[in-house]
Design brief:
- The chain has 210 residues and is of the alpha+beta class.
- 41% of the residues lie in helices and 23% in strands.
- The protein contains 5 helices and 9 strands, in the order αβββββααββββαα.
- Helix 1 runs parallel beside helix 2.
- The chain is globular, with a radius of gyration of 19 Å.
Length: 210
């Protein structure tokens, strides 16, 4: 991927993004914080530009890259994840309020009901005995402790979360499962359109759902 391509792809999806003069940045309403990548010497620097309540914008460096390709893919995955979280995940939670997603009443049956309503069951593993490739694993360690993990296409359990309580684990299991399904769908579109030539890596999937 390159910056010009990333700006076009994000903008076409509704996430307005501009690339010019070796800087790619998201376009947001005035006085909103935004992300941008600019070239500095031989490196590309990702910054969060903090503008709200500031007389002068403050640059907060997030990451450094040694190639345009790695910087462009990172920016694409990072900003697409944020965009999808608002456009799809948050919207679903607000519109399907009978499921109580994230609330005190949200339990395992409601989590499964939410996943079934979205028809994304193949992306969810309920315990290690039900492990599925390319899924989010909800692992009940004991009566009080849970973990949420990413399972790759080779059935490897990666990116284990810290120990979570039941409420947080169920919420993250839902949001991560939904995001995983969305990126897999987008990946297929990009491959079919020739925008990318190989699937996203495990690390890029983990970045997207984080």
């Amino acid at each position: 991927m390159n910056f010009e391509q990333v700006a076009r792809l994000l903008t076409d999806e509704g996430k307005e993004t501009r690339y010019s003069g070796e800087i790619i940045k998201e376009i947001l309403p005035p006085y909103s914080n935004y992300h941008e990548i600019g070239k500095v010497g031989d490196n590309w620097i990702l910054n969060l530009i903090v503008v709200d309540h500031q007389n002068t914008p403050v640059y907060q460096q997030i990451a450094t890259f040694t190639s345009e390709d790695s910087a462009a893919i990172y920016f694409y995955i990072d900003r697409l994840s944020s965009f999808y979280s608002k456009k799809y995940v948050r919207k679903f939670i607000q519109e399907q309020n009978d499921l109580e997603v994230g609330g005190e009443l949200f339990d395992l049956p409601l989590l499964i009901a939410a996943i079934e309503r979205l028809k994304i069951e193949k992306f969810f593993s309920n315990g290690v005995i039900n492990l599925k490739p390319m899924s989010i694993l909800l692992n009940n360690i004991n009566e009080t402790d849970w973990k949420v993990c990413f399972v790759n296409s080779n059935m490897q359990i990666l990116d284990e979360s810290q120990i979570l309580d039941r409420m947080d684990a169920l919420f993250y299991a839902f949001t991560n499962t939904y995001l995983l399904s969305l990126l897999q769908s987008r990946e297929k579109e990009l491959l079919d359109q020739g925008e990318i030539t190989e699937p996203f890596s495990d690390e890029e999937y983990i970045q997207f759902i984080a």
